[in-house]
Amino acid sequence: MLIIRRRGWEIPESQATPEHVFFSRRTLIGGAASLAVASALPASALSQRIADLPDPTADLYPAKRNEKYVLDGTLTPEKNSTNYNNFYEYGTDKYVAGRAQALRTRPWTVKFDGMVEKEKTVAIDDLIRAMPLEERLYRHRCVEAWSMAVPWSGFAMAKLVEYAKPLAGAKYVRMETFLDPAMAPEQNKPFFPWPYIEGLTMAEATNELAFMVTGLYGKPVHKQNGAPLRVVLPWKYGFKSIKSIVRFEFTDKRPKGTWEVLQAREYGFWANVNPEVHHPRWSQASEEDIGTRERRPTVIFNGYGPYVADLYKGLEGEKLFV
Questions:
Q1: Does residue 73 carry a pLDDT above 80?
Q2: Max alpha carbon distance in the chain (Å)?
Q3: Are 291 and 74 spatial neighbours (Cβ–Cβ below 8 Å)?
Q4: Alpha-carbon distances, residue 278 vs 2, 211, 261 (angstroms)
Q5: Residue 1 burial (CB < 10 Å; 0-12/13-18/19+)?
Q6: End-to-end Cα distance, the chain
Q7: Would you list the DSSP string of 41-75?
Q8: What is the three-class DSSP state of 211?
Q9: Range 112-115 contact pairs with CB under 8 angstroms and sequence separation of 24 or more
Q10: How far apart are CA 77 and CA 58, in angstroms?
Q11: Is residue 2 pLDDT above 70, yes or no?
Q12: What are the distances in angstroms from CA 237 to CA 54, 146, 185, 269, 275?
């Protein structure tokens, strides 16, 4: 009979740490060592060092491109789409990229609750690694009549819904961003009902275009663009594509988004792109490309009608385009 005697330093192969976990931990440990040296720094400086830690999922990018989703124009240069952003947690102007670097994306957890089989909270890196990542080229249209076209990386929102296991009675998904006024100073101001909220019908959330974004331009998504997790809905105005999400609640009641709460006359639940339905304060007939600075005609559903128009049959009484 063969008797195996393991030496004190040997462990079974089944107990070995998987390679991707080892490298993620090594990144964090390296960062932690740097922070230990910085422990005597003021709290603000230490907070910034934490915010500057490398992304533990960086090895997953660039993701393989899904060639089904093509553009009718050119991609917006990275310098444009990452330096012209709405992120009201860091300011009401478009040039928030520098301020948004204070966003600490690790540790970060995402909660799934409401009408689900079992409530759960998951670490963002575990969630990302559990999903099949891909890259998609999408047009993006802001309600302010500017647009861009960028390579998003991430996974179908339908996969996230499947992961959450909602109950049959759930009709909507309510999404919520982080709330941390110390990290995001604008959240100390009363003009917004923080945290930022948005919602979708289950049919919209499981439509093939609905996309959970974790990366951009072949790397982890930039903080000002919604790190570490945002949604992108290319047929809707951009304010529906909530950034830096921490919670998905499944419910049978229609959620009210932040902008709908602030001004329902101008910003509604549906917010589908339509050149013939104007914002009360400006036309939606055309849009400015932030890469080329050229104006182009706006297209209904931002050009994605073949994918989504059927979602709204029978809803003619709804204000689908504000």
A1: yes
A2: 86
A3: yes
A4: 81, 26, 19
A5: exposed
A6: 77
A7: S-HHHHHHHHHTSPPTTGGG-SPPB-TTS--SSPP
A8: strand
A9: 112/163, 112/164, 112/247, 112/248, 112/250, 113/247, 113/248, 113/249, 113/250, 114/166, 114/170, 114/174, 114/249, 114/250, 114/251, 115/166, 115/167, 115/169, 115/170, 115/250, 115/251, 115/252
A10: 21
A11: no
A12: 31, 10, 26, 11, 12
Region class of 145: left (phi > 0), else alpha (psi between -120 and 50), else beta: left
- Judge whether residue 135 has pLDDT over 60: yes
pTM: 0.86
Instruction: Check whether 18 has a pLDDT greater than 80.
Output: no
What is the distance between the alpha carbons of residues 176 and 231, in angstroms, rounded to a whole number? 11
Write the CATH number of the domain with boundaries 62-312. 3.90.420.10
Provide the pLDDT for residue 54: 86
d(CA 92, CA 185): 12
Q: How far is 205 from 157, CA to CA, in rounded Å? A: 6
Name 91's Cβ contacts closer than 8 Å, sequence gap at least 6.
99, 186
Both tokens of residue 69? 């989703």
Domain ranges of the chain: 15-54, 62-312
Question: So what's the pLDDT on residue 257?
Answer: 97
Phi-psi domain of 188 (left: phi exceeds 0; alpha: psi -120 through 50; beta: other): alpha
Distance between CA 254 and CA 223 in Å, rounded?
29
Buried b (16+ CB within 10 A) or exposed e, 156-174: bbebbbebbebeeebebbb
Q: Which residue has the tokens 């990542």?
A: 133
Residue 31 scores a pLDDT above 50: no
Question: What six digits make up the tokens of 286?
Answer: 């055309």
